[in-house]
Amino acid sequence: MSLMATPLMHCVGFSAAGVSHTRRDAPSAPPAGRTALGRFPLAARPASRGLIDVRRARLSTRAARTVAPVEWRDQWMKLTEEKVKSILPEEAMRMVTAGEAVLVDVRKPEDYEQSHAQDSVSVPLFRAVNPLKTDLKGMLKFAVYAVNGVGAVEANPDFEDEVAAVSGDKAAIFYCEAGGMLEPTPNFMYGRESRSLKAAYKVLVDERVKTVYHLSGGLFQWYKDGFEFTGEYNTANVGRTPNSAAVGTYDDKKKQ
């Protein structure tokens, strides 16, 4: 074999046995996540930027709608730390008459329509569930309550806005049926929760109303103390609250 053929032999790659073969570089491994054909598996294919943004937006919206409820114990601690006062009807009436505060009824609208403290305004903490304007959870709740002959309610999403609108630069005094209480007792370490106290907590955290008060004893105490009503007050409503025992005691005293 001539010397002229040597470069060609190296190029073609003759083996020791004289059989030729073509040199090829070893195939490189496919990038991580790709198949041998150079494609990503369907589940591993990167999403487009637009799709990622849409998914993030959906997650943010769901997170905004789903707010973990605050336990009563934590609400009570906030109310006591901020020294929210429970005032008697006499003091509440004085503040309302002097233009220093607004008396806010947080009960259901139908209860307010039946009777309410004179000069109070209605801003319900809860509203009736509308099955046509709620999510799946609300629809299920509506169905379960309807089977038992009870109207389902849900938190009023505009509560803080409505209170801020009616209060303006005045203080807000919240009342419900029986009032609840902040003072701890041997049986109630964190007082007694009520709609009016929960309303006070929500508005306190919202920070748009300058001062928040709670009407001690609720509307029933207003009734017992002889302050004026719009409509006829039904004491049977108090029987549906934790303070129902107080109703019987008061009625017994009236009969004596």
UniProtKB/TrEMBL annotation:
GO terms for cellular component: chloroplast. SUPFAM superfamilies: Rhodanese/Cell cycle control phosphatase. Residues 97-231 form the Rhodanese domain. Pfam families: Rhodanese. It comes from the Eukaryota. PANTHER family: RHODANESE DOMAIN-CONTAINING PROTEIN (PTHR44920:SF2), RHODANESE-LIKE DOMAIN-CONTAINING PROTEIN 14, CHLOROPLASTIC-RELATED (PTHR44920). This is Rhodanese domain-containing protein. It comes from Strombidium rassoulzadegani.
